[in-house]
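Lab channel / #folding
Pinned by the channel admin:
"Please post every new chain as: sequence first, then the structure tokens as a reply. Keep commentary short and put observations after the output so the thread stays searchable."

First post following the new format, from NK:
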Amino acid sequence: MLRDTPRGDQAVRDARVGGNGVPMAFSEAFGIEISKEKTPEIHKLVINMREDAGDLATRHAKEHYMRVRPFSFFKENTCNPEQQQELSTNGSYPSGHTAIGWATALVLAEINPARQNEILERGYEMGQSRVICGYHFQSDVDAARLVASAVVARLHANEAFMKQLEKAKKEFAQLEKAGAVKPSENN
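Reply from TO:
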């Protein structure tokens, strides 16, 4: 079982999408710390996307299907048993955490295409963490990636999102020019 491995430890950390959890989860893959202090425009974009890609995009399907979560179905603990009572009251399908992670990965890869492999892998792994921890079935995670892709496509038609994306791209270009962004090791 992966839970008692370094990958399992990562899965536990990936459950933290509140606060600065998502920006910090992507900082290494992105090549620079994503924070209010160092990358305020990129940070704002990521934080603003969290609600669009997560609860707003998945809530209705979760409420409609109310799929039992794996930990409830199999009567096994998750990586964080303290959350089980709360999570058992909402549906497993599709995964909100996965939708947040994959949508974030798609947009960050657009900002920093040189590190797209690292960024997309990180987004993919955030979803797999939900399976490792027993919060979701694989099909919940797979469906969430489709939801996230649709959310990102829709956001590209949103004027406020596009303005913030342009600010983030401009900020990134300045940081890259200054040598503040770690280059990809995959190129």
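NK: The longest helix spans residues 159-177.
TO: also worth noting, The chain has one domain: 2-176.
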